[in-house]
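Key result, reporting period 2: structure in, sequence out.
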């Protein structure tokens, strides 16, 4: 089968490895099956050390970042936990953490763009994002020069920056709507010839990339944790970690029990929490007033086969509704005790751990993995020059023939930018 194959378990049929839609059941996620059922760390840069369980055939050398897992002392002792591990995703030079956009979205963008490279075409990758995902894709594409169309709500444009100089291959489209409008538009464009959809949770490269969080933690600690904590919007990280854990069980050296997923959402804008518990009303003002609006996703992959519901059911997992004041407390506590700034989404995860300890959901001697999905942005700002990404074109969602206009504009501008870059 080569290094890996892509299939849906129940239909016993292998598909083209770059497919995103399952042929025998479109409402199900395809999954990667790797030839090597044991994982050995490779002597490769950044996250590529987990090459054996990444759906790639080659690497983007410039990727220096990976998850850094370590055993917590101060936060652990404050919470009365003896085996608390932290999977840190972000920038923290003292711990050799070099994820240069400061969130774990880099774990998705590098393998995704590596696969585009493998397919040898000049298609333009289309990504809709309100912030962190856009930064992660901009980062890779400014390193590789691969063409990228970012579709971003006007209000989020200020969050886009890169540490790299050349952004000639990036087209930033600002939309006067919300994140959902941006996604709808991006999906329409991605269907056209010459464009590729990054695919969200359906993209195995995104999931297996995020799965390296669990691989890293287990390589460091030597065993599968009993509990896993993460703040979620789409829940893709939760699915990814569940899949990686099944592979680690298959490896045979790290334990035979799946970690229990403890996922956290930010109230009141918590669609996954509502789907799972039936509680909580999503107000029309969402995502305003959220502690971190990257955690707002109106259409998370919950009911799809192999999605968030399956991951929760299979691990006996749960979702925590976290209020802003709790997240704030979690943020202060973590930053003070562990000594690095964290992204507000990560603070929501810290808050869920505090709650779990209070509620007795975790035992003081159980192994716990806390995913700090983003951190060290303030630190990065001090150390480096963050260059804002410039808007290439602004559009109003109500405009007519919007896709055609965009396509013309994108090809024109990308060609121009590249010519200028070459001069
Ligand atoms: C995207 C993101 C999340 C949520 O991730 P999902 O698993 O896709 O829901 C959490 N934290 C940060 C910092 C993020 O960028």
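The corresponding designed sequence is given below.
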């Amino acid at each position: 089968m080569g290094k890996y194959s892509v299939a849906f378990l129940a239909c016993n049929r292998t598909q083209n490895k770059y497919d995103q839609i399952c042929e025998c059941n479109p409402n199900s996620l395809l999954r990667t099956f790797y030839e090597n059922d044991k994982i050995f760390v490779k002597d490769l840069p950044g996250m590529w050390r987990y090459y054996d369980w990444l759906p790639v055939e080659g690497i983007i050398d410039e990727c220096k970042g990976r998850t850094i897992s370590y055993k917590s002392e101060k936060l652990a002792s404050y919470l009365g936990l003896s085996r608390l591990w932290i999977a840190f995703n972000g920038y923290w030079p003292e711990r050799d953490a070099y994820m240069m956009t400061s969130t774990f979205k880099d774990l998705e963008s590098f393998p995704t763009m590596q696969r585009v490279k493998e397919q040898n075409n000049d298609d333009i990758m289309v990504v809709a994002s309100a912030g962190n995902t856009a930064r992660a894709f901009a980062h890779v594409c400014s390193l590789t020069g691969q063409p990228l169309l970012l579709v971003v709500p006007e209000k989020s444009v200020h969050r886009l920056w890169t540490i790299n100089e050349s952004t000639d291959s990036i087209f930033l489209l600002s939309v006067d709507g919300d994140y959902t409008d941006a996604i709808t538009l991006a999906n329409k464009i991605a269907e056209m010839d010459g464009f590729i959809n990054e695919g969200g949770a359906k993209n195995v490269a995104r999931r297996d990339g995020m799965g390296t969080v669990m691989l890293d933690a287990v390589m460091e600690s030597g065993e599968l944790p009993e509990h896993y904590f993460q703040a979620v919007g789409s829940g893709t990280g939760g699915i990814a970690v569940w899949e990686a854990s099944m592979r680690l069980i298959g490896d045979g050296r790290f334990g035979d029990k799946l970690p229990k997923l403890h996922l956290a959402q930010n109230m009141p804008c918590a669609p996954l929490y509502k789907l799972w518990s039936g509680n909580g009303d999503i107000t029309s003002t969402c995502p305003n007033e959220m502690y971190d609006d990257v955690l707002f996703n109106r259409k998370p992959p919950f009911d799809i086969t192999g999605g968030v519901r399956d991951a929760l059911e299979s691990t006996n997992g749960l979702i925590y509704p976290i209020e802003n004041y709790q997240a704030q407390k979690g943020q202060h506590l973590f930053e003070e005790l562990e000594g690095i700034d964290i992204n507000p989404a990560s603070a929501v995860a810290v808050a869920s751990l505090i709650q779990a300890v209070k509620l007795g959901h975790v035992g003081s001697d159980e192994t716990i993995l806390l995913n700090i999905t983003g951190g060290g942005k303030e630190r990065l700002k001090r150390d480096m020059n963050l260059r804002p990404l410039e808007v290439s074109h602004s559009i109003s969602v109500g405009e007519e023939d919007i896709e055609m206009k965009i396509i013309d504009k994108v090809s024109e501008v990308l060609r121009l930018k590249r010519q200028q870059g070459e001069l």
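The mean pLDDT is 93. The pocket of pyridoxal-5'-phosphate is lined by residues 103, 105, 132, 231-238, 294, 343, 345, 373-374 (CB under 6 Å). This case is discussed further under Risks and Mitigation.
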